[in-house]
Design brief:
CATH architecture: Roll
Radius of gyration: 13 Å
Helix content: 10-25%
Distance between the termini: 26 Å
Largest sheet: 4 strands, antiparallel
CATH superfamily: S. aureus uracil DNA glycosylase inhibitor
Strand content: 35-45%
Order of helices and strands: HEHEEE
CATH topology: Nuclear Transport Factor 2, Chain: A
Number of strands: 4
Number of domains: 1
Length: 84
């Protein structure tokens, strides 16, 4: 599944009213120990320390959707959203 497909499926399920709106995309590589969200940290596999995160930020609704993958960007580990 591509990042775009995962994002669109998440939006359709949780924020269908924002499906066709303007989103800004950012990505980064991070270390597991940098995470502040404990539930997200627990969902990542043991033995790996580097991960890639794509963050879709809504231009007007103060919502960010994140997709966390392995450092190569091939396997999705977590998808979620937060108010910003």
């Amino acid at each position: 599944m591509t990042i775009t497909t995962a994002f669109r499926l998440y939006v359709q399920k949780h924020y269908p009213h924002l499906n066709d709106d303007e989103w800004i995309l950012d990505d980064t590589i991070f270390r597991k120990e940098q995470l502040k969200l404990e539930h997200l940290k627990r969902s990542l596999p043991e033995g790996e320390s580097l991960f890639k995160c794509f963050c879709f930020i809504h231009a007007h609704a103060n919502i960010a959707i994140y997709i966390v993958l392995d450092k190569t960007g091939k396997e999705i580990y977590a998808t979620g959203s937060m108010r910003i």
